[in-house]
């Protein structure tokens, strides 16, 4: 089979690799039907995640079909169509018993495309299959489902829930990339008074409006002043950081009101300054986190019921063997307008509109 193999900083290739095989009785092997590319994959290629060793197949999100299961797997069987979660859970350690699967100490956590071969391949081995794949409702498309492997549970759990969004809140999302847009969509579930999206790219700000943002701001044009004007000078109740740079994190801390929450979702590759000389007196709560994916079954049901606009974030589709082209398009989002790219299934040359059904 073929997979997209990491060969060191700035180097990766779609190439022949050995077929995966069951290693443990709790494993499953999945034939990949659709995958997507995450901003974290770009961080790996930039050298920001040194734990990823050369020779590792990248990717941690997929939809596919079970082709083989180990003897201890009970919840899925060959032929089942499943979502492969970005987080693998042993189900037995102290963290898994608290549904903190991202912190699994029993051999799980974020391992696909990180510590073991990932999903950007024709087949993938998934450890601890009973808790790490989710059977899919029959009417849910691959494009809609694959975004539930990572970005929607990440934005919902690490952004909206950690930020404690409540009815009537002012919510600011800094970064209108895929995770930020998913945060806009999931924050709406809690009926905030307003959602403000901040980004540099006009196309992404327009996408944020299409997904429910009430106001948008160019990050270069003092968005903190807009937030102050909208809130009588108080600031936002919740600010969600969805970029991962020192500048955006510090911007978030300037826009939050006393007693408010800053929920950091972005993957940071450099230190950020925490201005405690200003923040210590403001009763600010700052949260960080790796997604646990405990919300995935709920989000799956909501998407199947038409309550979450997941497929609307897909702007480009490719065949699996067009992996390098897909990476180029996704990495060059400022020029290509890419939000999420999906590989696998029918090939579409056209760009799908962000507000498509």
Automatic annotation (TrEMBL):
Gene3D superfamilies: Medium-chain alcohol dehydrogenases, catalytic domain, NAD(P)-binding Rossmann-like Domain. Keywords: Metal-binding, Oxidoreductase, Zinc. InterPro entries: ADH-like_C, ADH-like_N, ADH_Zn_CS, ER, GroES-like_sf, NAD(P)-bd_dom_sf. The keyword Zinc applies. CDD domains: FDH_like_ADH2. SUPFAM superfamilies: GroES-like, NAD(P)-binding Rossmann-fold domains. It holds the Pfam family ADH_N. Its cofactor is Zn(2+). Residues 8-343 form the Enoyl reductase (ER) domain. It comes from the Bacteria. PANTHER family: NADP-DEPENDENT ISOPROPANOL DEHYDROGENASE, ZINC-TYPE ALCOHOL DEHYDROGENASE-LIKE. Belongs to the zinc-containing alcohol dehydrogenase family. This is Zinc-dependent alcohol dehydrogenase family protein. It comes from Streptomyces nigra.
């Amino acid at each position: 089979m073929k997979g997209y193999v990491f060969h060191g900083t700035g180097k990766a290739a779609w190439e022949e690799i050995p077929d995966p095989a069951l290693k443990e009785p709790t494993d499953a092997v999945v034939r990949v039907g659709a995958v997507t590319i995450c901003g974290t994959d770009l961080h790996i290629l930039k050298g920001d995640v040194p734990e990823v060793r050369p020779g590792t197949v990248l990717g941690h999100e997929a939809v596919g079909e079970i082709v083989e299961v180990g003897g201890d797997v009970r919840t899925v069987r060959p032929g089942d169509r499943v979502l492969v979660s970005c987080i693998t859970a042993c189900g037995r350690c102290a963290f898994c018993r608290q549904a903190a699967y991202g912190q699994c100490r029993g051999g799980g956590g974020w391992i696909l495309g990180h510590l073991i071969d990932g999903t950007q391949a024709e087949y993938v081995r998934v450890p601890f299959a009973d808790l790490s794949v989710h059977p899919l409702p029959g009417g849910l498309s691959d494009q809609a489902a694959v975004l539930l492997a990572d970005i929607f549970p990440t934005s919902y759990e690490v952004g909206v829930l950690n930020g404690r969004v409540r009815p009537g809140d002012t919510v600011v999302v800094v970064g209108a990339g895929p995770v930020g847009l998913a945060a806009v969509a999931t924050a709406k579930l809690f009926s905030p008074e307003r959602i403000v999206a901040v980004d540099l790219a006009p196309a992404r700000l327009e996408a944020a409006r299409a997904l429910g943002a009430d106001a948008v701001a160019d990050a270069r044009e003092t968005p903190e002043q807009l937030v102050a004007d909208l809130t009588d000078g108080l600031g936002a109740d919740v600010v969600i950081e969805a970029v991962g740079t020192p500048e955006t994190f510090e911007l978030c801390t300037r826009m939050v009101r006393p007693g408010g929450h800053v929920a950091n979702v972005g993957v940071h590759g450099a230190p950020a300054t925490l201005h405690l000389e200003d923040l210590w007196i403001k009763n600010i709560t700052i949260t960080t986190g790796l997604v646990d994916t405990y919300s995935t079954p709920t989000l799956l049901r909501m998407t199947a019921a038409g309550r979450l606009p997941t497929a609307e974030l897909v702007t480009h589709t490719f065949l699996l063997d067009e992996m390098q082209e897909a990476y180029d398009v996704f990495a060059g989002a400022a020029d290509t307008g890419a939000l999420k790219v999906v590989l696998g299934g029918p090939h579409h040359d056209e760009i799908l509109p962000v507000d498509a059904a």
